[in-house]
Amino acid sequence: MRRDTKQRELFDQKATAEEFAACLERQCDWVAAVPDSVYRRILPALTMWHFASRENHAVGMAFGVRLGGKRPAILMQNSGLGLSIDALLGTFSLYKQGVLLVVSDRGVLPWEEIQHQEWGRITKPLLAATEIEAISFDTEGLAGLERAAKRAEKRKIVALVVERGNINE
Asked: Which domains does the chain have, with CATH numbers?
């Protein structure tokens, strides 16, 4: 559901960055991120995370650690999803491995930067078209994060979609 009629201050915060980071670390034992303003307080709250300069690089790293027995998560913004789809389909999907994607849904609100607007419109349809299961953090909160991680353990690519204002930025 597009939130273009709501303003940022009307969002219900679903978790603090510290709560989100703690829950993520309980569910996953390896995290990579392409930094994004939505995650700027989450990243310092994580015990350890791996920097990736591009989302497809994060996918490659996560695939390697998944084959090594880890439970990976990748934090990215929705525009990075487009960059990473080939890598996701050519690794995790092809080899039936699971990964948790945490995708910030940028561009949904009318005041967000123009370069994010198109991605805000197509993120959820793109996830559906690629058959990547999407779970809404806005709807489910930390329980959605836990559910998404459990689905990824069942050898699925799962995206937890985080809206602006769900986590204290």
From this structure: 16-162 (3.40.50.970)
